[in-house]
Amino acid sequence: MRKQYLLWMALLIPSWQLSAQTYCTPTAGASSQNNYLKNAVFSDQGAIYYDAASYQAYVDNSGQMVTSYPGGTVNVHLEHSGSTKSYVWVDWNADGDFDDFYEGPIEPSPFNTVDDQFFVPPTQEPGVYRIRVQSGSTFPNPVNPCGPNNYGGFVDFSLKINPTPTCLAPSALTASNITNSTALISWEASTTSPGSGYEYYYTSTNTPPTATTTPSGTSMTTSANISGLYSFTTYYIYARSICSASDKSSWSLRGTFKTKCDPMASMFENFEAVTGANANCWDKLGPGYMTIGTGSGVNNSKGITQSALSAANFSLAVLPLFSNVNAGTHWLRFKAKVSSDPGVLDIGYVTNDSDASTFNIVQSVNISNKNYDGYEYRVIIPNTVPSNARLAIRHSGVPAVNIYWDEVYWEPKPNCLPVSNVTVSNITSSSVDLAWNASSSSPSGYDIYYSLNNTPPTASTVPNITNVSGNTYTISNLESAKNYYIWVRPRCSSTDQGPWGNITSILTACAPVPNLSENFDSYNTGLITNAPCWGKITVGIIASCTINGSTPAASGTKHISLRSTSSGDIAIAVLPEFSNVNAGTHRLRFKAYSSQSTGKLKVGYVADPTNAESFVLIQQLDVTNTSYNANYYTVNVPATVPANTRLAIRSDYATSTNVSYYIDDVNWENGSLGTSEVSAKAELTVYPNPFTDTINISSEQKVSSMAVYDLSGKIVKEITSPSTSVSLKELPSGAYLIKVILKNGTAKTIKAVKK
After folding, report:
1. How many separate domains does the chain show?
2. Distance between CA atoms of 633 and 438, rounded to whole angstroms?
3. 366 shares a domain with 310
4. What does the pLDDT look like over 580-621, one tens digit per residue?
5. Is residue 166 part of a domain?
6. In which domain, by residue range, is 708 found?
7. Fibronectin type-III domain: which residues (predicted)?
8. How many percent of the chain have pLDDT more than 70?
């Protein structure tokens, strides 16, 4: 290690007479339960292996000894819990403490895994010396090998110094050419070549061999083939030099390897039994990200998350070895989804399961669905795949999105193969046209199943439509404004139907309705378009038209929120289309309140449900209540409203300034008037009729506004708070509809003629 350290050791260590020593029992505090030494390996001409499953304040493991010699090098490997790190002491002078400044050869590393070494002084006397490891996330200052240590623990080991050996141990044991029952083990030759070769030992237990352990075999080279191994088993391998019949080295530091799994004829893997990030018999290649975690799989169970940032950052999942991978009779079936943008998985195989460059693509699968339900992907594996190949799923990094997959099958493909690429077109309120890519099995026909429920059909599900010839069909007699889920399967014979294809969904168009009663409780909060057949128009940055569930509704828990809070804002809730909008027999009735007592809400219609400029006012309402009450706002819709337009409720900053409106219990209903409504209309008159330039309004109630329409329904003049005498001098001669709206919300439309 350090030259200065070795110099002091050489000068200060005399030939002490060694004897058994008593060492302090270190103390640790209760704060240290998560900070401890998990694993340790000390090695030179022999090795010790330490494993801990849980925290202990102090472990006297001095019965285990690492063997070295004067001038030797002791390699140290430490693994800690969490961010813990360690000090290592050696009581070189065997005086029962670690207080001498040269007795701390390894200081803490900034990493929780430590690979370091210390040197045995060349003048060190043979004997047994105490090693102490102190682990912790935080150390006292000064650090004390006797404690206290409130954030860690202590473990003791022993170092046995033997005379310099004449036969040194080999190093760097590795394994290659691993199968389910064989492997080639190799090691690096010792610094002095042994005259009689090497002995090796392998075992499936982690108990290291001793000097008297019978070796598994011998080799005159630095490698050996071993066989008769158990599949999918971890083996520990050791080697030692044979310098003569009576002179053998210590066993080397061990190497480990795991045998491959036996080839499988079929497989189903849903990753539920997996502990950690790797499934049995699977492998991972490439620098990209791949893990198994809860929440990634079907029904939020365990599944694979695979991602890659670029082509150079690819991720490759290597499946178990299949005995029939090139039989041409099987396919790979799995479920997959994305969370945002579409992604691509490449399905293929590797001819070397430790070399990603041997990957070959069989088929690329485009994945755009954001949920698992109803979606499965199937790839037929051809018989041209090499018999020793392993199937693999690659995320190439293009595009760089997360892809999730689960429920992977290796199984015989059916005789009747599925359809693909089901598409929809010409969606109306009652029908939809389907098309799909024909099955390669040339079936006699196809079955169709559709439902308002997205539960996928099974083999025993009765189709709605059977034995369709060709690969197009029009489904009729659907309900309007409904979400339908559709599946197609091939029918190769009366007893052989293929699997249902992936789910396809549609929302049928809205059909005009004669009446409406809506309180919005059955829809998700968010845009008002969550309510089928409703629309919205917003102009400006802050304008909004939503279904609100966070403020008290008139009934239930949800209602409409209209907001136009800055200059230029317009927010319009567009109602469903009514088949009798211009019958002159119906009215719009709803509850509403305003955030301010000066609220002014407009009710009208739009010819274009996407264009605020197409809004035509029918009646402006003074909404002065700031909470819901028992009263409704009622607007009688005249027969002058053009057919095929849609009623709309509008808030705009120009009229109301910064006011929010809440609307609930909306009804489109027959406009039969109650007694109070009839009497209110009877009190209102417009005269003279015909008129020349001026008309007069007579009413016992205060007038809110007046609007003049031509006979096409176009508004030609609008007056807010008119006087009892109104000039219409600028209008050309002709017939007009004059609508007068009173402060109490009632209105009357009168046909008048200008001379």
Report:
1. 6
2. 57
3. yes
4. 999 999 999 999 999 999 999 999 999 999 999 999 999 999
5. no
6. 675-754
7. 169-262, 418-511
8. 95
227 has a pLDDT exceeding 70: yes
Name the residue among 668, 654, 661, 552 with its Cα closest to residue 601: 661
Distance between CA atoms of 726 and 695, rounded to whole angstroms? 5
Sequence length of the chain is 755
Residue 105 has pLDDT above 90, yes or no: no
Structure tokens at 533: 């057949």
Does 597 share its domain with 746?
no
Question: Do 128 and 188 belong to one domain?
Answer: no
Residue 202: predicted pLDDT: 98
For residue range 405-435, what is the model confidence (pLDDT) as tens digits?
A: 999 999 999 999 999 999 999 999 999 999 9
* HSE of 471, CA atoms in CB hemisphere, 13 A: 16
Instruction: Tell me the C-alpha distance between 570 and 563, whole Å.
Output: 8
Q: Which of 670, 699, 732 is the last residue of a domain?
A: 670
* 588, 668 contact by CB (below 8 A): yes
Q: pLDDT tens across 114-140, in order?
A: 999 999 999 999 999 999 999 988 888
Q: What are 35's two structure tokens?
A: 């900070």
Residue 191 lies in a domain: yes
CA atoms of 402 and 642, how far apart (whole Å): 51
In terms of domains, do 122 and 175 share one? no
Instruction: Say whether both 406 and 444 belong to one domain.
Output: no
Write out the two tokens for 280.
């049995």
The whole-model pTM stands at 0.72
**Tokens in use for 493?**
């014979």
Domain membership flag for residue 375: yes
Same domain, 84 and 220: no
In a domain, 696, yes or no: yes
Please, are residues 649 and 562 in contact by the beta-carbon 8 Å criterion?
yes
What lies within 8 Å, CB to CB, of 582 at 6+ separation is 637, 639, 640, 641, 642, 643, 645
Residue 630 CB coordination number (10 Å): 6
Query: 383 and 287 in one domain?
Result: yes
pLDDT band for position 724 (cuts 50, 70, 90) = confident
Domain boundary residue among 507, 540, 563? 507
